[in-house]
Structure formats: C-alpha cells, structure tokens
C-alpha cells in the first residue's frame, strides 16, 4: 500500500514509486518529519532530533521540558511557541494574537486524489493510480481546523501536498501566511538550484551552496514571473545530471509565490513553499474554508535528469488535459514577426498560401486584428474586428484559410485594457487601481480587475462571441505586464491584501470556463513570452510560449533551463527570421530548426521573402517533425551537455521502449583547428543494437553510451547536427 499508519510506532509511511516519506506522530499530537528519500522498509523506531537541552533552549510545555520546537523537524510549524524559524502558516485572531497551536485529531487514507476547489492540480484518471492521506489538525482555543493533504502516485516518484483551512468557530480569523508545504531536513549540506531570468531570458539555471540564514526565491508581480519560476531543488553536493540526491519542489500556481530555504544555527534546513506571504492576507469568516495551491515534490537518486524525467511524465499525463494532451500539435505560422500590426487580409492570405505550400497546418493571426489597433497604444479590451484590415471579418478570413486546408488561430490579451479604448472610457473603474492615485502604465496598458465577477463575465462574453463567430481552432492567451496598485474598488478595506490571490482565482475560473466550452480549441499560454510558464497554466493550456526571444542560440539556454521541470511537449518553439529581431544574430536555418524541433514546432517569419533554399529546408524540417514528434513529446529527455557550462549544447530523447532516439547537438562559437570530439549518449538499452539513420553501422547501446558518436568537424559559428537512432529488432 502506498500509504499506511502504524499505531504501534505512531508512524505514517507514504510511498510513491521508489520514494518513501515518513511522518511521526510525536506524543500523540505533534507531526514530526522523519524521512524523505529512496524507498525504505518500515522501521519500528526512528530517531528525530527533539533535543531541548540547548543553551537558551525554549520548551513549549512547562510540564515536559524534554523537547523543543526549535529543533524538532515539523510538518507544518507555527511561529512563536519555541520555533523561531520561518513558519508554514500564521493566523491573526480578533484580539490581535498571532499564536496558534495545532495538534493532531484524526486522519483518513483513501484511494485516488481529490480535486482542489478553484485551483489547478495534478489528477488521476482512476482511483488505483494514487492514494491520499488527509491529516486533521485543530487549535481548540480558536476552533481552527487545518487539513494537510498528501497524495502519493504509484507510478511516479512524486508526492503532492496542499493544505485546507477551515474556521469552525464564531470569531473572524485572518490568514497571514498559508504555505502549501514545509519540509525540515536534518542536515544542511545542500546546493540550491532555481530558475531565474528576465523578459527574453527566462529560466536560466542558477546553482548555489546553501548559506546560513534565509534564501528566498519569489515573485511579487502578480504572476509567476519572468524573473523567478515557482520551482526550487535541493541537491546533494556534487550532484550531476546522472548521479546524486535531488529534492524538487514545484508549485502549481500562477501568481505571487515564495520558496524559502532556511539553514539555521544547528545546520538544519527548512523549505517552505506556497503563496507569497508578502502583501497577502485572507479573511476567514466563520464557516469558511481556504485551500492552498498544490506543491509537487519529486525525489530522485539519479541526479537532476531523474528528477526532470519524473516531472515531465507526470505533467504530460496528469497535469495537462484536453483533446491535445496526447496529440501532435499542428505546425503553425504566427503572423507577428512577419507583419506586426501592418497587415490586411490580402497580405495574410499571401502568407497563408506560402505556408500551405510548405506543409504548415495552422495559421495564427497575432496582435492587431481588433478595435483600432495599429500599434500597442490602443484598443486592448475592444474585442471586435477591425474591418479596415479585415473587411470580411474573422469569419471570412477563417473560411478562406480553411478552404486552403489550413486551421485558423487567434491572439487575445483578455486581462488587459488600453487607456485609449472604448472599454476603458466606458468602465474606468474596471481596472485594478487605488482611487485618486495615478495608475502605473506598462506596455501602454492597465490591468482589468478580474477579481470581479462582472468584469470576468464581460470579458468572457466578448471572447465567446468571437470564438463562436469564426472557425477558430487555436488561441494564444497573452498577458503582457505585471500588476501594480493592487487594489480592487469592489472589495472592502480588510480584504485588499486578497487581491493578488483573487486575481489568480479569477483567471483560473475564466480559463476553466473557456476551455470547457470550447474543448476543440488548442489554447497556448503566454505572458510577454515566458512570464507565466508554470504548472498552473498547464492545467488549462497544454503548451506555453516559452519566450519572446526566438534566437536559436538564446533559446538553447532558455529551453535547457525550462526542461529542468517542464516537458518539451509544453514549450512553444518557433523558427524566426535572421538577423534575429531580439538580438540581431544570424544563424543557419538548419540550426534554427534543430532548436525549435524540441518543442511545439512552428514558424514566425515572412515566408514570402525567403530564398528557395530556405523554403526547401522548411519542407525538410516539417517532414522531419512529423516523423519524430512522438519521440520528443513522449520520450525521456537526457541533457548531455549544458550550454551554461560549455560552448556547445547537446540533448536527446529516447522512447520508453528504448527502440527509438533522436539526438541534437549545437556548436555555439567556432574554434580554430578543433580537436576530435565524441558525444556520449544516454538512456539507451545497453544490450540492444542500434542503427543511426544515414549510417549503415550497427552499434550496441553500451558502445553509444560509453564511447559515443563522432562529432563531425565543421567550421564556423552556430553549426548543428542531429542523429536519429532505431533499435535493430529481431
């Protein structure tokens, strides 16, 4: 059984595929964290550090001075009653007190996994895929019930955690902090890995030793952000792609978050992760509940690669949903870098005609089709067709595209409004704002207050009207600025610190309604590129635009870092023009294609201006993608050489049965008189024989992994190579 409770030892044993997580019920009322790591047998007794005999050690029970919360590894700790580390939660009572004392009351173990009300989360398709443990903790003085929810997956090394608060009393409570998980580690010899960045440079890998004190990875921008992804990992010192212990924490949430790592005076390490407590409170009236987002915790003893492959499989199959979850996505052309705002129907159809001849399947009309949108200073919020550009409307354009044999897709930015728009002139109060204060502009736009039901209803009404009136099969949902002046004119003063979280809940409600009503549409998330590339969005949209930076060399690091948590099937990746519009770099069409092949493949350039040679290369890329997409989408990823560490990048995908593989190699800057190089592969079956397409030699998997394949000697910058491997069967 994945989860069991031993009443003799007061131990909860939670088992995922090859992982154990152990909790001890200490003195019949306190939850102490005992172990998380490689699967172990049940012990009759496990030691935990509860020593109170430290100098100045504080003891919470005057009748029992044998233990202290200051050193006890706790499952869901409070602050103020002998634990001085960062707490997992904090509740303010009507008298201003913020001291609580949660103790164990009961627990339940059952098959399956519950949905989280109003929030995205991983799921099961049958109850035998996972088991769930719910532990009820009570503070009898204030009638507060807190339920810790753990789910262990049978086929994944993943354990999910979330928390539900319920006010059973008569006084109003105010939640000041509600983290989704806390894990106390008994030692501090770890390295911290996180994904940082900026616009056009998202999810760069950074790895640092843990220091004494507190390290915080967070966003306070109203979105998960370009700057920090809602993910961290603790690594044993020297852990590599293939070896070492790795503990991953991935938050299924799209708003303000914090991942806090604290190494204390005794070298104990505490990790808490959840909604950022900065600028957050939640008023919990009598009888009300509050649910935290889910954290997906993954342990790997096979280094970063093992952790990544677990996240990839779980998120592909049990986070992403919908008709496109397991399908090849249509190969698209996006109009943005081809035309920007300067287009008409004739120009679009000429681009579409060229796309169809090259084998592209989906035409996406990006920004500029609505209101009077000739640049980025107007018309957001006016979701009606600009007949100057499209005299036959979206329906007329869509029908012509369909007649060509192309699907039709469209760009929206529904959360925003331009100051120069009919919507803003009619409803200036619909923006997030503080009355009387100047509204901060970003990208010439304001943020609509989607915490309000009336605002959400009107946005959805306009979007649905468009989606019903034209043959649209793809939507790119953009969000191009962070939140400022986070205040809602529709909320009372005591609830203003709920705005950030209510915004995310409103977003999820809108996405759930649209994706449910239009299940045939492929939705792609976007936020100025990769500013909201997080598991919360993936629950509603199976792919996200990885970055506005389409340069192939920049994308090496962006996609490499993104792959630490997210599978290739979720990454929008396009071939664009050169010189590249973000960095001005000129790279070969072949290399641009090789990089973009490791994602949801498409193009973003003016096809009518390409040379015949480039057009022939595009035809080859499209046919190649149709042949190998299943290896990339469904296979296991092995990162072979990191562009963060070397002048090259290399990675490969291997099918689950080990019968097919595809290998990619990109040389960044050329070298004079280069040495002979070999690339050692990974993930193959050592006992199987493989043939490399285009090479008649047969090699065993162990040879390919231990000796490698020869890298062709090529001159110049930005050259690339690709190999397709197939097992010789029979």
UniProtKB/TrEMBL annotation:
A Pfam entry, by short name: Glyco_hydro_36C
Domain Glycosyl hydrolase family 36 C-terminal: 649-725
Active site positions: 478 (nucleophile), 548 (proton donor)
Reactions catalysed: Hydrolysis of terminal, non-reducing alpha-D-galactose residues in alpha-D-galactosides, including galactose oligosaccharides, galactomannans and galactolipids
Top-tier EC class: hydrolase
Residues reported to bind substrate: 199, 366-367, 443, 476-480, 526, 548
Matches recorded under CDD domains: GH36
Keyword Hydrolase: yes
The keyword Zinc-finger belongs to this UniProt entry's keyword annotation: no
Annotated Glycosyl hydrolase family 36 N-terminal domain residues: 30-284
GO molecular function term, any single one: alpha-galactosidase activity
UniProt-listed GO biological process terms: carbohydrate catabolic process
Family: Belongs to the glycosyl hydrolase.
Protein name stated in the entry: Alpha-galactosidase
Organism annotation: Caldicellulosiruptor changbaiensis
